[in-house]
Design goal:
- The chain is mostly helical.
- The protein has a single domain, classed as Up-down Bundle (Amino acid/polyamine transporter I), CATH 1.20.1740.
- It is built from 18 helices and no strands.
- The protein has helices spanning 14-25, 28-40, 44-72, 76-86, 94-126, 134-145, 148-167, 170-199, 202-210, 219-232, 239-244, 253-281, 290-302, 307-340, 345-365, 380-407, 410-417, 421-448.
- The site of tryptophan has 16 residues, from helix 1, helix 2, helix 5, helix 10 and helix 14.
């Protein structure tokens, strides 16, 4: 079904793989959602539990996904089928690949619309947009949400940017784009954090994020942290599996995963410090959701020395983060089209982009003309987010943990991981017991609606 290993691309080196995987992980989730969640979910309590979750559940699953991708040497569907075949497990496991491939495209349909908002604000920052009051900042964001045509233009542009990279190939497109954007992203983030320290109120931000109040440690906070650990590491959607399938045999999966988890977390923490420093320096309350970066920050930027330049850099930073993540959401399906249907990469990428773009148009309308059309009380945007983040991601993560922990059998797993004995048994045990249990808890929480 899939082509022999010799026909598949391989990342230039281990660092290229680490870079693209960080590129996938670090996205709107880390820079927009993490600071906001930390702010609204008990501050330091959330940060602490999130760090523990990344280490105990996120990292082991990240390793498992990379391992399946490399062992299966194919797109997520073929990789699951190949490994299932090798280990004489049921071919039903191929479904896990499908959930990932389709889920990734569903995520992309709304991720691209949100990234379009960022493009809109980048354009505003470039043209000297200023807001003087919170009401004006709110009104300008509302005006954008009320204008489907404008959102569609930016959404279209973002899809073209994303698909354009994937169409060029794994090395000439994906790896190259990440090699440029990721270092730029780190540089801008460090500059912004420094500027936040000088022009903003860093102590207040530090306080807000790291002052530990044990009373805030509620079950709701723990569950939110597990869920976010998942999303922020791009787990369960085939993206990591697809990237892992291009990893050479000599790289250590454990060490590379550790780098990815560390860097992803660091970016979230730095972004949080920078964003809250600016927010508090202006005496503003951190708004929730998209309001934090699209309303509160433009307001802060407008009244600070050097604000306009930093506003431009800030939106470029988020754009790069979103762009490299979106690329990883397209690749799994494109890889399937090229490997299993023999379609050339160019047409495969543009065709996939067209379908996702079309669904995204509906997302643009769900904020205005179509807001009355709901499913289970959710508009299309909310429904797609709920379906992917709360149902498909945890289910597929659970399946991956069970597949590696129980179905594959110890020997092939051990053979592919090549970890020192102690590390291997610890990791394997986590995948067998702790990870499935943790994910199940989150899932039941979602179904039960406890918070
Ligand atoms: N991790 C990205 C973020 O934090 C989002 C993302 C990219 C993602 N690829 C994914 C989430 C694959 C789940 C699966 O914004």
């Amino acid at each position: 079904m899939s082509q022999p290993a010799s026909f598949r691309s391989t990342w230039t080196n281990r660092w290229a793989f680490i870079l693209v995987t960080i590129g996938s992980a670090v996205g709107l989730g880390n820079i927009w959602k993490f600071p906001y969640m930390a702010g609204s979910q008990g501050g330091s309590a959330f940060v602490l539990v999130y760090l523990v979750c990344v280490l105990l559940i996120g990292l082991p699953l990240l390793m498992a996904e990379i391992m399946i991708g490399r062992r299966g040497r194919g797109n997520p569907v073929s990789a699951m089928l190949n490994v299932a075949g090798e280990t004489r497990s049921s071919s039903w496991w191929g479904l896990v690949g499908w959930v990932g491939v389709v889920g990734a495209l569903l995520i992309l349909s709304f991720y691209s619309v949100v990234a379009g908002w960022i493009l809109d604000y980048l354009f505003k920052a470039l043209t000297g947009f200023r807001v003087e009051t919170a009401a004006a900042a709110g009104a300008s964001f509302k005006a954008l949400l009320g204008n489907p045509g404008q959102m569609m233009v930016w959404h279209s542009l973002f899809m073209i940017l994303t698909v354009g990279v994937v169409a060029r190939g794994v090395i000439a497109g994906i790896e190259k784009a990440n090699r440029v954007m990721m270092p730029a992203l780190f540089l801008i983030l460090v500059l912004l954090t420094l500027w936040g320290g000088v022009a903003g109120d860093m102590p207040a931000a530090w306080h807000f994020m790291f002052e530990f109040k044990p009373a805030d440690l509620t079950p709701g906070v723990v569950l939110a942290a597990v869920g976010h650990a998942f999303f922020s590491l791009s787990l369960g959607m085939g993206a990591i599996m697809a990237y892992g399938s291009y990893l050479d045999q000599d790289s250590s999966i454990g060490a590379t995963s550790l780098w990815v988890a560390l860097a992803g977390t660091l970016v979230g923490l730095l972004a949080g410090l920078a964003i809250f420093s600016l927010t508090f320096a202006q005496g503003l309350e951190p708004a929730s959701g998209p309001g934090l970066i699209l309303q509160t920050l433009p307001l802060a930027f407008s009244s600070m020395p050097g604000g306009q330049i930093f506003a431009v850099f800030f939106f470029i930073l988020i754009l790069f983060a979103a762009w490299t993540s979106a690329i990883s959401l397209v690749e799994p399906f494109v890889a399937w089209l090229t490997e299993c249907l023999g379609i050339r990469r160019g047409p495969a990428a543009w065709g996939t982009g067209l379908a996702v773009w079309f669904l995204g148009l509906g997302v643009c309308l769900s904020f205005n003309n179509w807001s009355a059309y709901t499913l289970f009380g959710l508009n299309l945007f909310e429904f797609l987010d709920f379906l992917t983040s709360r149902i498909m991601m945890p289910l597929s993560g659970l399946a991956i943990a069970l597949f590696v922990g129980w179905a594959m059998g110890r020997d092939p797993v051990r053979d592919e991981m090549r970890l020192p004995d102690g590390a291997f048994s610890a990791w394997y045990r986590v995948l067998r017991y702790l990870a499935p249990l943790g994910i199940l808890l989150v899932f039941l929480h979602v179904l039960g609606g406890i918070s």
